[in-house]
Structure formats: structure tokens, C-alpha cells
């Protein structure tokens, strides 16, 4: 009989807590559960913060959180689960970054904490109280950690980069439109 140690119990608690919170947030986006807006409402929000198309962005974000969180809680495909959740949280942190660090001011603290916890679990592994352990770590090999985190980082960089470029262009266009409107008002007087 195998004796579980403090590390296994600690990883189980960390996986259940982090994965459960992520899965709940993803369920809000995907299914409208727990007072969430579902795909339609989340898609509208995503559009408003520069992630377009909104419904596609809502689906991707919801799957990263719900799927990644559920898999983290189960300790299954831990490298991919942690990477997906971390990528989703990096995208969320980008939206909150202009408000600073602290969540009470609308900052990125919460998203960063969940993303770092998911990354830490992906790197440390799920422990022996996990489905990955039961399945002989077929979906949790050492080489999978850098690959999954690298793919998630690259994908997140592309999506966030496109969003940031779009936001800059809209800000420039909005500034030019206001300037032109002001000039037109001068000529009308």
C-alpha cells in the first residue's frame, strides 16, 4: 500500500482549489451557470475589450478555464491543463493591466494568481492523488511541460498582440475622428 505524503496532499488541495475556481469561471462563460453571461453575453464583453470575434473569444476563454480547470482538479493531462489555464489567465490579465495590480482597483492580481498557480501545477506535476498517476503518467511526461507551456505562450502572445494592436488602432482612429469633428465644428461657426 502506498502512503501519501504532505506533497501529494498539498498538490491535491492546490489542484482542487485552483481547478475548481477556473472551472466555475469557465462554466459561467460557456453555459451561463453560477450567474454567468453564457457565450452570447461573454462574447459581447469580449468584443468590448478588444477580443474579436467575441463569441469565438468567449468560447476559447471558457474552454481554457472550464476544460483546463476541470483537468487540473482531476490531475489529468496536467501539463496541457495548466498551460491552457495559464494562457487564458494571461489574456484576462491583459484586460485588467491598465487598472494596476490590485484586484480591488480592477487590476490583474486575481488572474495572475490563478495563472501562476496553474503554471506551478503543470511544472510540479499532479502528485500521486491524481488520474495522471493512476494512468501511469501517459499524459504527464516531462517533455510535455515545456511543449505545452511554449505552445500556450506562443498562442497567447499572438492573440493578445492582435488585441493590443486593434486597441491602439481604435484609439488612434477615435482620436483622429474627434479631431476632425472639432475642425468641422470650427468651419460651421
Automatic annotation (TrEMBL):
Highest taxon listed in the record's lineage: Bacteria
Cell membrane in keyword set: yes
UniProt cross-references to InterPro entries, sorted A to Z: DoxX, DoxX-like_oxidoreductase
Keywords per UniProt: Cell membrane, Membrane, Transmembrane, Transmembrane helix
Name used for this protein in its record: RpiR family transcriptional regulator
Residue ranges crossing the lipid bilayer per the database entry: 71-95, 107-131, 143-162
Keyword Oxidoreductase attached: no
Main location: membrane
Bilayer topology: Multi-pass membrane protein
GO CC annotation, single: plasma membrane
Amino acid at each position: 500500500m502506498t502512503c501519501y505524503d504532505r506533497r501529494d496532499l498539498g498538490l491535491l488541495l492546490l489542484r482542487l482549489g485552483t481547478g475548481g475556481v477556473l472551472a466555475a469561471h469557465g462554466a459561467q462563460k460557456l453555459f451561463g451557470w453560477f450567474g454567468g453571461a453564457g457565450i452570447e453575453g461573454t462574447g459581447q464583453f469580449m468584443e468590448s475589450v478588444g477580443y474579436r470575434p467575441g463569441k469565438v473569444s468567449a468560447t476559447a476563454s471558457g474552454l481554457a478555464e472550464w476544460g483546463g480547470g476541470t483537468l487540473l482538479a482531476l490531475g489529468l493531462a496536467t501539463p496541457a491543463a495548466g498551460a491552457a489555464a495559464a494562457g487564458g489567465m494571461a489574456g484576462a490579465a491583459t484586460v485588467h493591466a491598465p487598472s494596476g495590480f490590485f484586484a480591488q482597483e480592477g487590476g490583474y492580481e486575481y488572474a495572475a494568481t490563478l495563472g501562476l498557480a496553474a503554471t506551478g501545477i503543470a511544472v510540479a506535476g499532479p502528485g500521486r492523488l491524481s488520474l495522471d498517476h493512476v494512468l501511469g503518467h501517459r499524459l504527464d511526461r516531462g517533455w510535455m511541460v515545456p511543449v505545452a507551456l511554449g505552445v500556450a505562450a506562443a498562442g497567447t502572445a499572438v492573440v493578445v498582440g492582435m488585441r493590443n494592436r486593434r486597441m491602439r488602432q481604435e484609439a488612434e482612429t477615435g482620436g483622429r475622428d474627434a479631431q476632425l469633428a472639432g475642425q468641422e465644428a470650427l468651419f460651421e461657426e
